[in-house]
Design brief:
Layout lengths: L4 H27 L19 H7 L6 H6 L6 H8 L6 H6 L9 H13 L5 H23 L3 H13 L1 H9 L2 H19 L3 H14 L18 H26 L5 H17 L10 H9 L3 H23 L5 H15 L12 H9 L11 H18 L15 H22 L10 H4 L5
Helix pairs in contact: 1-8, 6-12, 7-8, 7-10, 10-11, 11-12, 14-15, 15-16, 15-19, 16-17, 16-19, 17-18, 18-19
């Protein structure tokens, strides 16, 4: 495998340039008091710094014991979030307020385990451990995809300096990066035909963290031996076992957590963040665009979800019919994931690193001697620039609900790109799906 090194460097340059320009823009806003951001490179407000991890973890009743019995000094952010926390318990369910019960069993189990660990080591150290795990996961993913040290370093920097990664670090949403990394690892396990069972386990975990990851199941069409249905059953078996085990363990640690309360908490979350305005900020889903334009209705919500499944279905059919290659399939599924989710905060945009990684390891796309170089470059450039656009910050011109121009630009650019790829596919004089499959990309022989 000989990755295209110059392309990786160009991607890194673009990401650093765009992130730098955005930091300057935010600095100007702060200098003239036009922004409530915490510091020049920030994308969030002070009251929500690391909230998606710390605020969730300390929302459980046992967190109050940290204030009373802890042998470790608590930093201000922990005491502040314990004292004032939007995620309620059973009292929140009765009052129909936002609770922590909307989180799936696996996420709840990890959060409760993190809180238990805080009784034995300083809470801030637990946060640092979670941070190290995130960087280690990115490193392992890149190490699995690339062989050369230079490529690994380049892509580590690409991840670290990208807007979605910076955003999720400041939000502390480690579960979102976990989902993206797990889906990427699953994809390359299938492409490389290596560590298949581990890849299927990654997908099962991703489904337990964020069920929307179901949009990536058509990746199984890339299975070399064609046993995609068997692999699908294995994923669902693993996912079911993880769900059941996590639910049992979470309820044993926190008896108030039950399937009934999970469903109630999810309904309250839906009312506040899907029906209400709570989820509008930093939301790139197609549903969010329709909601801003026409206000919420069940019909509007259904259209958003159906569009995601429609894009995923078209991508799968086009691949089966050899009208799009594996890279286009992966990109179209990323767009389906974005458009089909009711809430899709900007940190989830990290998934668009996946098509870029695929382009950089696919020698055939940029091979100057290929007979179809012109057509392939059209496809790859559409994907390349669309992914760079998705990974770029567009957090400008906010209203009071955190809604900005990205709510229009991200889904529209994604849909337009998918339409272009579909047009290239159906107008192509030759089949392309299998010739650019993982067999060529990773050196497998026909």
């Amino acid at each position: 495998m000989n990755p295209n090194k110059s392309l990786s460097i160009e991607i890194l340059k673009l990401i650093i340039l765009i992130s730098g320009i955005n930091a300057i823009y935010l600095s100007i806003l702060n200098a003239f008091s036009f922004s409530g951001f915490s510091y020049p490179s920030s994308y969030i407000y002070n009251g929500d710094l690391f909230a998606d991890f710390i605020k969730v973890v300390v929302s459980y009743p046992d967190a109050k014991n940290l204030l009373i019995n802890s042998n470790f000094g608590l930093v201000d952010i922990f005491t502040d979030y314990i004292g004032s926390n939007q995620y309620k318990g059973l009292d929140g369910l009765e009052a129909k307020a936002l609770t922590h019960f909307h989180l799936p069993p696996f996420t709840t189990m990890v959060s409760l385990s993190s809180l238990s660990l805080m009784h034995f080591i300083p809470p801030q150290v637990v946060f640092y451990i979670a941070l190290v795990v995130v960087f280690f996961a990115v490193y392992k993913l890149i190490g699995f995809v690339f062989d050369s040290t230079r490529e690994k370093l380049t892509w580590m920097l690409c991840f670290i300096f990208s807007y979605p990664f910076l955003f999720l670090l400041q939000r502390g949403n480690f579960f979102s990066v976990a989902t993206s990394i797990l889906v990427m690892f699953f994809t390359f396990c299938i492409l490389k035909n290596k560590k298949i069972l581990l890849g299927l386990l990654c997908m099962a975990l991703a489904l337990n963290i964020r069920p929307n990851a179901i949009f990536f199941l058509p990746i199984l069409l890339l299975v070399i031996n064609g046993r995609w249905f068997i692999r699908l059953l294995e994923i669902f078996l693993m996912a079911t076992c993880i769900f059941a085990f996590s639910a049992i363990l979470a309820s044993s640690i926190y008896p108030d957590y039950s399937l009934a309360n999970f469903i109630k908490g999810l309904a309250i979350y839906h009312d506040g963040y899907v029906v209400g305005r709570g989820g509008d900020g930093y939301n790139s889903s197609f549903f969010s665009l329709l909601k801003i334009a026409f206000k919420y209705s069940w019909f509007i919500e259904s259209i958003g979800s159906l569009l995601g499944f429609l894009i995923a279905g078209i991508a799968a059919i086009c691949f089966i019919k050899n009208k799009v290659d594996s890279t286009a399939l992966i990109f179209m599924l990323c767009v389906a994931y974005m458009c089909g989710s009711t809430t899709f905060a900007d940190y989830h945009l990290l998934i668009f690193m996946l098509p870029l990684l695929k382009i950089c390891v696919d020698e055939e796309i940029l091979d100057p001697y290929t007979k179809r170089r012109g057509e392939l470059l059209k496809v790859s450039m559409v994907i390349f620039w669309s992914c760079i656009f998705m990974l770029s910050p567009k957090n400008y011109l906010f209203d009071q609900n955190g809604v900005s121009v990205f709510i229009l630009l991200n889904p529209m650019v994604g849909i337009f790109s998918v339409a272009l790829l579909f047009f290239y596919g159906i107008s192509s004089s030759r089949a392309v799906g299998r010739t650019l499959s993982s067999k060529i990309s990773f050196g497998e022989k026909d």
